[in-house]
Amino acid sequence: MPDTKNDLLDQIKKKYEEMGQDPGTHLEGLLWSTPITYWDYIKTDSLLGLQIQRTTLPDEMVFIIYHQINELLFKMILWEIDQVAFHNSLTASFFASRLHRISRYFDMLSASFNIMREGMEVEQYMKFRNTLTPASGFQSAQYRLIEFSSTELINLIDYRFRSTIDRDTPYTHAFEHLYWQAAGKDFKTGEKSTLMQLFEKRYKGLFLRKMEEYNTVNLWTKFQELPESVRTDKDLMNAMRHYDHTVNVSWVMAHYNAAYKYLESGEDAAEATGGSDWKKYMHPRYQRRIFFPDLWSKEELENWGVDNLEGYQKL
């Protein structure tokens, strides 16, 4: 901080002159500005006006607010990832600190599934769920961006097709073989569901651009490009492993367990979005999504999601 008011004024003058702006104009503007308030800064009124129910069932409000909070946390996660992705001189401490931030957000997301699992009546959920068709949390574009920015694209390809795709594969072709494509198709006909068609109409262009943008700056690629002395930093390696486990095992299993309570609660088990086998789609031991595969032992990889890896050891 500047030592004196004159030092502060000199720095303000320098700042605006470097921008080609008249410092006096900006200082005069301060005379007419109004004091900032909490509600203006946070936009409280706008934020609290975004919860619009489609039914008369009270627990739908819980469902809406919960998912809006998720999207805000996803935005925070992407904000942190980009600080690493577009950093030109990464250090182990900076990389690890951002990963710890991201993992804390995902830890919060994992714990928050108790709100869904214990905070809504099953009967109410099964009623308003039908009103929301074909919308689904599957359509969270930000979560897909988190995946694209976290790892190399090959690690997001349906494991059945990975041997047919490499770095020379067109992004449009790779897009059709992403692991989540299977859950967006009618498992009986193979046709894309209305949910998937709407999702792609809104976001496919963005996804293809981001797949290309993050191709060389995703977290896994950035890590692999670091000098060996940085890549072998224990804190950084453990931060990478914790993030991978938190996103692809802990959070997924928390989601799985919440879904299980509702979709298996009735006399007839409910189908997931698009009629897919939601258990195999969601459970990590089937999808085997792993952002940083080389940071796990052969045994850990073989048991991915089997025992939830809750007791995995730090390096």
Query: Low-confidence segments, ≥5 residues, pLDDT <50?
Result: none
| Helix share bin | 55-70%
Give the biggest beta sheet: none
Number of helices, counting only DSSP H or I runs of 4 residues or more: 16
Q: How many domain units? A: 1
Silhouette: globular
Provide the gyration radius in Å: 23 Å
Q: Terminal Cα separation, in Å?
A: 40 Å
What would the CATH topology be? Methane Monooxygenase Hydroxylase, Chain G, domain 1
**SSE ordering:** HHHHHHHHHHHHHHHH
CATH top-level class: Mainly Alpha
What percent strand?
Answer: under 5%
Mean pLDDT: 89
Class from secondary-structure proportions: mainly alpha
CATH architecture classification name = Up-down Bundle
Say how many strands there are: 0
